[in-house]
Amino acid sequence: MSIIWQFFTVEDQSDTVAKCKLCLKGLRRGKFGCLPKDFSTSPLHKHMKSMHAVEYRKAEETALCEAKSRTEEKADTGPSGSVSKAEEADRYNSDDPGRKLQPEKVLGYQR
Ligand SMILES: [Zn+2]
After folding, report:
1. Is residue 80 part of a domain?
2. Is residue 108 in some structural domain?
3. Cα torsion at 50, 53, 65, 21 (round to 10°)?
4. Does 78 reside within a domain?
């Protein structure tokens, strides 16, 4: 989801005009009558950069921070999840080497 939609609203998803929430100006996001797939947010970004640069930058920074905190949260749950998995793996490993290595050793000794 683009941060641009924090600042713009559309009455209809197929509406070519997006309304700026800050100055209530309507901005075309595509040629009149063009299909939603041809819509572009670049005019909206341009509008934000030229008209509401401060708000736009804040939103960008917030989005970045949220993205970071999300990845950090994921990273936090990831290691803790993988730690428990690693612990499980350790248990399995501590079991497995005994089960797997012994026959190998036996084979090795036998050979
Ligand atoms: Zn505006």
Report:
1. no
2. no
3. -80
4. no
Do the domain assignments include residue 44? Answer: yes
* Ion ligand 1: protein residues whose beta carbon lies under 5 Å: 20, 22-23, 51
CA 86 / ligand 1 centre spacing (Å): 52
pLDDT tens digits for range 33-81: 788 899 999 999 999 999 999 999 999 999 999 989 988 877 665 555 5
**Cα of 69 to ligand 1 centre, how many Å?**
29
Task: Determine the distance separating the centroid of ligand 1 and the alpha carbon of 41, expressed in angstroms.
Answer: 13
Phi, psi for 39 (deg, rounded to 5): -65, 145
Find the domain containing 47 and state its range: 3-69
